[in-house]
Amino acid sequence: MNGELSLAHLVGEASLLVQLVMLILLSASVASWMLILQHWQLFRRVRAEAEAFEGRFWSGRELAEIHREVRDGESRGQAAIFEAGYNEFSRLPRGAPVLDTVQRAMRVVLNREVDGLEHRLGWLATIGSVSPYVGLFGTVWGIMNSFTALGDVQQATLARVAPGIAEALFATAMGLFAAIPAVIAYNRFSQQAERLAERYDNFIEEFGTLLLRHAGR
């Protein structure tokens, strides 16, 4: 309880500018955790959908049957790539180049899906890179105020400078608290997006080869 009261007192007694810095860092931390939760749910859902679709696709069923299921549902990820490729393949006249045309259509959808995975990831990178500097600014300002206040007293004591230094260090701690999870999450989600993009790209190659065999029959 005393720690909580002293912390509240520390924030309440901080200078207006340092309080503003703390508010910015608190808002950045809340926004960061919201983005982390959203992307965690997104990548979990996308991986589950990829596993489910690959199970259907490699089950030996007819492509037309899979296409009807995808068309009647909400296609995302590999399902959306499959639908684009199958639709393009169905419209091609006999004798037209299959592989390049179909893969080009699928890669357009791949880029769109990857953009969706990376949507707002840049905010995590921004929070992770900027927050320590915002906290450092609050630290410098708090320490500067502490030493400036010494000019108005006859005798400098630790009790006079301690509150200002404490609020300054607290601003630094808040900057790190906002930055570290954001950086870790950004790196983690970026790696997952790259792996999913590679997975989609491999599917395009495999599906294109399969359609090429169908065209040759």
From TrEMBL:
Protein name from the UniProt record: Tol-Pal system protein TolQ
Coiled-coil region: none
MotA/TolQ/ExbB proton channel domain span: 78-201
InterPro entries the record matches: ExbB/TolQ_transport (IPR050790), MotA_ExbB_proton_chnl (IPR002898), Tol-Pal_TolQ (IPR014163)
Main location group: membrane
Gene source species: Thiohalospira halophila DSM 15071
UniProt family annotation: Belongs to the ExbB/TolQ family.
Function: Part of the Tol-Pal system, which plays a role in outer membrane invagination during cell division and is important for maintaining outer membrane integrity.
Transmembrane segments: 16-37, 121-144, 164-186
Compartment(s) where it occurs, according to its Swiss-Prot or TrEMBL record: Cell inner membrane; Cell membrane
Topology in membrane: Multi-pass membrane protein
HAMAP family noted in UniProt: TolQ
